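Entry for the shared binder. Reason: the reviewer on the internal report wants the predicted structure included alongside the sequence.
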Amino acid sequence: MRKGSGILTTRQRRLAWLGFLLAALQAPVSAWLVSDDSWLFSLCVALMVATVLIADDARRRPADARTGD
């Protein structure tokens, strides 16, 4: 694997951002429209996708930027 390469390809990363935004926007709308707590599932999905995006960012950063030197 190349140095500074991430977990996701560029296309997967764009789709992950789209999925994150859709799930994050759907959660409050669903909470407002539906009386049960099913909106929490959308929130959990958005948090899991955000975790993958953060992990991908950490792997894409060069080794020099991680150490802070």
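Summary line for the report: The chain has a mean pLDDT of 86.
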